[in-house]
TrEMBL record:
It comes from Gordonia asplenii. InterPro entries: MJ0683-like, rSAM, rSAM_sf. Pfam families: Radical_SAM. The keyword Metal-binding applies. GO terms for molecular function: catalytic activity; iron-sulfur cluster binding; metal ion binding. This is Radical SAM protein. It comes from the Bacteria. The lineage of its organism: Bacteria, Bacillati, Actinomycetota, Actinomycetes, Mycobacteriales. Residues 61-236 form the Radical SAM core domain. The keyword Transmembrane helix does not apply. NCBIfam families: rSAM_Rv2578c.
Length: 344
């Protein structure tokens, strides 16, 4: 069924934030039951990272706002409040699609002020969430960056990335292309598989993402894996982490970076409401661990580093120094880096 036949009325004043964002139409389809896609024409697409940031990139591009991955812990949830939507269910079901992302990006990259800095794709919401299969925004974005000789990095949980591997191989012949995949659950453990389905219900399975890692490696890339977020008390067991790192090494991962879950703004209440339903015995411990803010305390961060270090060494996943002058990625990221690198 054509999406043009699935339009819903969106001009009734219920979405004032979206009206400001350049709303063209809102669309529902049986393929995405319960989800409304708000198609917009954006005025800009390149987002500049603050000068004082320690991140290894200075610009980002996000083709969507909101994400059908529906990860309970997603740090980007509060950004939906800027659109006068809520950070909980609306983030999962009211997805903004930037229809003209590639055209606007090409225009911005033609500016004389553009210095071909690295552009990170997928720092806020996943560029390869399921809707990308319908909208096909990424081929145009990749093409625009390649034509402008602009290095790019991609972070995703989405197996749709496989579709664009031939295009990315072509791009890599012109500019540096860095591919990272997020996976913090092991395919071998039944409890881990069940947890993944409950806490990030819209994402591909761990097994599917391991297959993606193999495909990325076979395509000639060195896939870096974000073991992220490590969820305290649920995914930080040594046996689970050991199993996961073994799977990643076997799949061809070049290195890993891990960091503990952080709960910024409205994400904290959304996640804790899930804990209260699914793991009520842990609720008090989470309130204590995150009682002072969005991040775990220094003691837990240190504990995670001490746990991850030997396992990363055991499986040969320490990785190598980044190209050019960039430093090697840390095994366990510091809070500021973790807060900006995770999509989800």
């Amino acid at each position: 069924m054509r999406w043009s036949e699935q339009m819903v009325e969106a001009s009734d004043g219920a979405l004032p934030g979206l009206d400001r964002a350049g709303l063209v139409r809102s669309v529902q389809t049986p393929e995405f039951e319960g989800v409304t896609f708000h198609e917009v024409l954006c005025k800009s697409i390149l987002n500049k990272v603050p000068e004082n940031s320690t991140l290894p990139f200075r610009f980002t591009v996000n083709t969507f706002r909101g994400c059908t991955h529906a990860c309970r812990y997603c740090f980007a949830r509060p950004t939906h409040e800027y659109l006068e939507l809520d950070a909980g269910a609306d983030f999962d079901s009211q997805v903004v699609v930037k229809l003209n992302a590639a055209a606007v990006l090409r225009k911005e990259l033609r500016r004389r002020s553009w210095h071909r800095d690295v552009v990170a794709l997928g720092t806020n919401t996943d560029p390869y969430q399921r809707a990308e299969g319908r909208y096909r925004l990424m081929p145009g974005v990749i093409g625009a960056l390649t034509q402008a000789y602009t290095p790019m990095s991609i972070l995703t949980k989405g197996t749709l990335l496989r579709r664009d591997l031939p295009l990315l191989r072509q791009a890599a012949g012109e500019v540096p292309v860095d591919i990272s995949i997020s996976l913090a659950f092991t395919a071998a453990d039944e409890a881990s598989r069940a947890l993944q389905k409950r806490i990030e219900p819209g994402t591909p399975s761990a097994a599917a993402r391991l297959d993606l890692i193999r495909a990325v490696a076979d395509a000639g890339f060195a896939p870096h894996i974000m073991v992220a977020p490590v969820i305290p008390y649920l995914t930080d067991g040594v046996a689970v982490l050991d199993s996961l790192l073994g799977e990643l090494a076997d799949a061809g991962a070049a290195g890993v970076t891990a960091f503990p879950m952080h709960l910024r703004g409205a994400t904290k209440d959304w996640f804790l409401s899930w804990v209260a339903e699914e793991h009520p015995a842990l609720l008090k411990r989470y309130r204590s661990l995150y009682g002072r803010g969005a991040y775990v305390n220094a003691e837990y961060s240190r504990w995670l580093r001490e746990r991850m270090g030997p396992l990363v060494a055991k499986h040969g996943l320490a990785g190598a120094a980044r190209e050019r002058e960039a430093p090697a990625r840390p095994v366990v990221a510091e809070p500021e880096l973790a807060g900006a690198l995770t999509l989800f």
